[in-house]
Amino acid sequence: MSETLTITTPDGAFSAYVARPSAASAPAIVVIQEIFGVNKVMRDICDDLAAQGFVAVCPDLFWRIEPGIDITDQSEGEWKKAFELYNAFDVDAGVSDIAATIAATRALPGVSGKVGAVGYCLGGLLAFLTAVRTDADASVSYYGVGTEKHVAEAEKLARPLLMHIAEEDQFVPKEAQKVILDALKDHPQIEIHTYPGRDHAFARVGGAHYDAADAGTANARSLAFFKSNLG
């Protein structure tokens, strides 16, 4: 079952896609978009999480630039649009919007209290920043782009964070991966898994670099992590 949630901030209001499980009460997960908006890939992730017993909420984080973005990774024109949005995006404002989404999600009927976050690509960076800057109870980052610039913020991290890194990620080069791993691998709240041979977005169903086996492994790790930390 899905619905639309409106989240109000001092800067304005934006919408979020909400998928609900069959249970009357459940923990929640905020799903943080890639550079393609709240598209079918993100809605399907929400629906899958709902099927696993979570309330899933995917906010429209591009609303300050252009509300309602819903594009794919299947054409050159859409990629051009996606990178224009990415370049115009204010990361700090995005984290603020995620914090507002977490607060609104906690107040939803049927949410049992704990709220996690999961993000992919741009959302992977935002999931890391959500972990260190907000009160999310547990966060998961998939191949976050630009995370190496923010590793110092991990000193503020007080709740669990799971990270998935593609070893052949064209947007997170080896040098950036080394910065991330050197800074974070021994942090008591952080669990990191790397995936040999995988490129960026290996878990995006239908994407050019999708790998069903490693996506399944990563998603199973994420599900177990959320069940352990949000239950």
UniProtKB/TrEMBL annotation:
Keyword Hydrolase: yes
Entry annotated with the keyword Cell division: no
Molecular functions (GO terms): carboxymethylenebutenolidase activity
Signal sequence annotation: none
Organism of provenance: Caulobacter rhizosphaerae
Alphabetic keyword roster: Hydrolase
EC number: 3.1.1.45
Name assigned to this protein: Carboxymethylenebutenolidase
InterPro entries in alphabetical order: AB_hydrolase_fold, Dienelactn_hydro, Dienelactone_hydrolase-like
Residue stretches making up the Dienelactone hydrolase domain: 14-228
Superkingdom of origin: Bacteria
Pfam families linked: DLH
